[in-house]
Design a protein that fits this description.
By secondary structure, the chain is mainly α. It is about 80% helix and about 0% strand. It has 4 helices and no strands. The longest helix has about 60 residues, at about 1-60. The protein is elongated, with a radius of gyration of 39 Å. The relative contact order is 0.03. GO terms for molecular function: syntaxin binding. Positively regulates a late step in synaptic vesicle exocytosis. Keywords: Coiled coil, Exocytosis, Neurotransmitter transport, Transport. It comes from Cloeon dipterum.
């Protein structure tokens, strides 16, 4: 009787192995079906593109992508542009304010201030 109990316990392991094997086979079948579907759609798209090209050749029509490459980028509509944040507007205003002369003036003022502090530190009024 002990032998029957031992044999019965092995059935659970066989069931798990069978289930795992069935799952692997199912996954493999799904993968193969997906590959066949993708290949079928790829072939259909190739046929469509071939027909499109024949029509383009017949009527001397250029492909949209080719037309876009030849046309220079047009200025976008100013009404449709992205709104600027207040920070961006402030940065632009600051950049406009600081033209070359303003930058030169500011650098000279800082240098004069540095020289002045050096002189004041060396000269002590008595």
């Amino acid at each position: 009787m002990d032998l029957l109990g031992a044999v019965g316990g092995d059935d659970d392991g066989d069931d798990k192995e069978k289930e795992e094997e069935a799952e692997r086979e199912r996954q493999e079948a799904i993968r193969e079906a997906e590959e066949r579907r993708k290949e079928k759609h790829r072939k259909m798209e190739e046929e469509r593109e071939k027909m499109r090209q024949e029509i383009r050749d017949k009527y001397n029509i250029k492909k949209k992508e080719e037309i876009q490459e030849m046309m220079p980028q047009e200025e976008p509509n100013p009404l449709m542009r992205k709104k600027k944040t207040p920070e961006e507007l402030a940065r632009e205003a600051e950049a406009e304010d600081e033209d070359e002369l303003t930058k030169l003036k500011n650098s000279i003022e800082t240098q004069v201030a540095e020289i002045k502090t050096q002189i004041e530190s060396k000269c002590v009024l008595q």
